[in-house]
Amino acid sequence: MSATALLVATRSDGKLREIRPMFAAAGLTLVSLDELEIEESPEEADLEPYATFEENARSKARYFYEVSGGIPTVADDSGLEVAALAGQPGVRSKRWSGRHDLKGSELDAENNRALVTSLDGIDDTSARYVCVAAYVAVGLDLTARGETSGSIVRAPRGSGGFGYDPYFLSSELGRTFGESTQSEKERVSHRGRAFR
Q1: Peptide bond into 72 cis (omega under 30)
Q2: Residues annotated as part of the active site
Q3: What is the three-state SS of the chain?
Q4: In the chain, what is the greatest distance between 2 CA atoms, to the nearest angstrom?
Q5: β-strand 140-152 against 168-170: which pairing, if any?
Q6: pTM of this prediction?
Q7: Do 118 and 96 form a contact (C-beta atoms < 8 A)?
């Protein structure tokens, strides 16, 4: 493994697709949990019990740093905060629908259905995406926060991105993240800002 290789502590294919190019542009190589053959364990379900993105991101980075035998590790915790829902789904964005039996695009669809239903009859759909990136290595434990503002649309637009992206209308781009190219999204996204 390269001396500049970092472990990216996520099981999300969507996050991997977004994070890898950012690190490659900086001359850094990311290795995934699958590439290191770190099998999913039951303990992973309990890595995000905290009320803040910072604590959850640190929890994941620290855990996988130890599990990997000390490979410098990056992780993130991110989510959607909707003003009219008092900041929810927030740190529970991935589990907003309560469907623990689903993964990937099926879980995304249920979360989006729950989001739109929660906003039924509400005029103010202003929202923001938040991401906290964490880095753990020998003697280092760092976090950085990124945010981007927008609003929630009632019907999906575009097929790009993942999660809530087809429903998140970016204030800066004037279109949903689902309608945006990966490079356009990276330029203004919460994740792009946190990892940069």
Answers
A1: no
A2: 77
A3: CCCCEEEECCCCHHHHHHHHHHHHHCCCEEEECCCCCCCCCHHHHHCCCCCCHHHHHHHHHHHHHHHCCCCCEEEEEEEEEEHHHCCCEHHHHHHCCCCCCCCHHHHHHHHHHHHHHHCCCCCCCEEEEEEEEEEEECCEEEEEEEEEEEEECCCCCCCCCCCCHHHEEECCCCCEHHHCCHHHHHHHCHHHHHHC
A4: 54
A5: antiparallel
A6: 0.93
A7: no
pLDDT at 144 over 70: yes
pLDDT the model gives residue 4: 65
pLDDT band at 58 (very low <50, low <70, confident <90, very high): very high
Q: How confident is the model at residue 90 (pLDDT cuts 50, 70, 90)?
A: very high
Burial of 104 (0-12, 13-18, 19+ CB in 10 A): exposed
Mean pLDDT, range 67-82, rounded to an integer: 97
Tell me, what's the pLDDT at 5? 86
